[in-house]
Prior knowledge:
The complex is a heterodimer of chains A (79) and B (220).
Chain A: E1 2-9, H1 16-27, E2 40-45, H2 51-66, E3 72-78
Antiparallel strand pairs in A: 1-2, 1-3
Chain B: E1 3-7, H1 14-25, E2 30-33, E3 44-47, H2 61-64, H3 67-77, E4 81-85, H4 87-94, E5 101-103, E6 111-119, E7 135-142, E8 146-148, H5 151-159, E9 163-168, E10 180-184, E11 190-193, H6 211-219
Parallel strand pairs in B: 1-2, 1-3, 3-4, 4-11
Antiparallel strand pairs in B: 5-8, 6-7, 6-9, 9-10, 10-11
Amino acid sequence: MRAKIKVTLKTGVLDPQGKAIEGALGHLGFGGVGEVRQGKYFEIELAETDHAKAREQAKAMCEKLIANTVIENYDIELA
Amino acid sequence: MKSAVVVFPGINRERDMMLALESVTGTRPVSVWHTETELPKVDLVVVPGGFSYGDYLRCGAIAARSPIMQDIRAKALKGLKVLGVCNGFQIITEAGLLPGVLVRNKDLRFVCRRVKLKVENNRTFFTNRLAKGAVVSCPVAHGEGNYICDPDTLKRLEGDNRVVFRYAENTNPNGALNDIAGIMNEAGTVIGMMPHPENMIEPLHGKTDCRPLFESLLAA
């Protein structure tokens, strides 16, 4: 099984990289671009075949390492 | 005073830190490799600056989960003195020894310059030789030193006098909340700071402003 994990900054946490990307999109002439937020994406292969257990395992990974829950949210998708 | 300096792959300020500790305390610190599982018996452990694991994932995140950090964490909770400088501050924060997090500098630039550092709390093991409110010159060199935390944590840090250092005279180089440059835990046994006092203690450094910080270790 594969865990696909998206890590995003929580609302209100300053994202200077997103801001810089927002500016660059403007320089390229893209109109109508609102706020840009940058995140991270992970794919983790798991030996676990049980859906619920795999989710639990991925969740523990996020809490312990993949995300810093002070500033980041995470979203797990199993495939 | 016996001390240990922890070394991770990608750390590069460990020699400066060891020299500073030896120069002031007269005792050579023990260097501890990150795969070790037990610290030698010391009075202080320093997590130095650098770029552990190339700042992969998040600065300090991988180092914070290394074998030696488990022992440091356990002993810190029992009162062992811990000082984290720059990447070391990021590492001990990621390890949960201090609240909040250090994120990318507000203007996205790596800063390498001197700042004015104000001692906000002089009743700590690293500041007791300076007066409260004293301002010293100190170098900074980091890309992710912007300290942030939730409003409740900030209130507690400020209310409990746990902000140890603040950037003074408009020299905040990274956008840190309330100009915070260094904080401590509730017990006052763990201190983390972004600037590099170990690089301002010899005449060759240009100034010796930060020598009293290391001298404080002798009294603590």
